[in-house]
Structure formats: structure tokens, C-alpha cells
Write a structure and sequence with these properties.
Layout (H helix, E strand, L loop, with lengths): L6 E2 L19 H25 L3 E8 L5 H8 L8 E4 L6 H4 L5 H4 L8 E5 L4 H8 L5 H20 L2 E9 L2 H13 L10 H6 L2 H15 L6 E5 L3 H19 L17
Parallel strand pairs: 2-4, 2-5, 3-4, 5-6
Antiparallel strand pairs: 1-6
Protein name: Polyphosphate:nucleotide phosphotransferase, PPK2 family
Keywords: Kinase, Transferase
InterPro entries: P-loop_NTPase, Polyphosphate_phosphotransfera, PPK2-rel_1, PPK2-related
Length: about 270
Amino acid sequence: MNLKAYRFTGGKVSLADIPTDADGGLTRADAEARMVTLGARLAELQERLYAEGKRSVLLVLQARDAGGKDGTVKHVFAGVNPQGVRVTSFKAPTLQERAHDFLWRVHAQTPPAGFIGVFNRSHYEDVLVPRVHGLLDGRGARRRLEHLVAFEALLHDSGTRVVKAYLHISKEEQRQRLQARLDDPQKHWKFDPADLAERELWDKYTAVYETVIERSGTKRAPWYVIPSDHKWYRNLVVSQLLVDTLEDLDPQFPPPTFDASKIRLK
């Protein structure tokens, strides 16, 4: 699978021109069959990364409400050893967090060597939400994005490969997913009435997301705009993205510090 079409490292972005319902010419059955192979490969590479203990991967997931962040984590990492994966979600900052710079709470959650870290909602929330709601002006947003680019460069230089995925859904797909949460009593816990107010700001979020992708997509930490109306295709693309990233890192099992051939158990 060629992911270059979804990759952005700076330059103009128009989300309206990027399909949300692309399927790569695959059927759901095709994708699910490929997921089995990719899942096994991801588990193998994650074990090597953990054993090597020198580098890490940070997967950043951003999406609108009901965009599929939780589902992506659930399906992509289903076969991976949970000891080597850490998932963090950044919600509205607490009083203590507001007393510090906006990245204070983020740095402590980045993955240590040997781990895959997942930000399910990320440091970009501190640009998106305040900008949409008028709590941050254009200059303030630009400065924060500059800090984020520098922060991600630091992570890269320190051995953390940063991969950022925007899960791209249509407004109609979001409507259907939110309605499904209302229609099924077992999904009521997933519904937040505040999501309806945020939905009314769809166009504002679109504009800010475009600015974020344009200004913070870099060669060191690219953005991938992933068509996500089809959940099965979204899962496949994110899995392929992680496998490609880890294969590029090519982690290795460390050499033994002993001669195994000379050890015999009694």
C-alpha cells in the first residue's frame, strides 16, 4: 500500500478535496485479511523494538468527535503485547496543568525507549480547541505550532519517531455515528451532548485543522490524512503506517551477554 498520497510535510491543504470514503480499491474482506498479516508483523516488530530498548514510536491520533480514535487503538493494537504500548488521552487541562506551559503535561507522557506511545487526542488539542473557541488568536496559534514543531524535532533527535494521523470523516458520517450512539442504549455512555455544540463549529474546525496540518507537517513528523468513513480501511491504513515506520527503524534483538551454547540446565 502506497501511503504517499496521504502524507503531508508542509504546504497548502484543502480537506474538502481529500475523499473521506476512499477504500484503496479493496473490499472489507480484503482489508480484514490483510489486517491478520499486518497484525502479526506489527507484533513481531513491536517485540523487537521493546527488546532493543533504544528507540520508540509515537502515534498521534487526531479526529473530530466520533472520528474513530478509540476504535483505531482497539483494532490496530489488538494483537500487540500491551506491556510495550502506552495510550494517553489529553483532555481539558486541569488547574495544575494551566499553571505551566502548555507542553508541560505532554512531555512526561511521551514513550520511553522500547515503547510505542499513542496519543488519543494529543498536544494539538491545545491549538485546535482554544483557536476554534476564540481563546487563542492567530498569532498565538502560530507560536504554539512553532513550539510543537520544535518539540517534535527534539523527540525525533532523541530517538522517538513521530507519526501523526488525522482520521478524516465526513459530516454525514459523523451524524450517523452520533445518532447510532443515541439509538443504542449500550452506547449512551459514549455520547456527550457537548459533541452537538462542537458539530455546529464544523467549518471552523476544518479551517484550523488545515492550518495545523500545513504548519506542523514536517519530514521528521509528517501528517497523514487518512480516509476514515470506512472503519476497516482506516484500521488497515494505520496498521500499514505503523508497520512501515517500524520496518524503517528496523529494531534488532540485542546480542546476548553470554554464550548460550555453554549453558546446560540440570
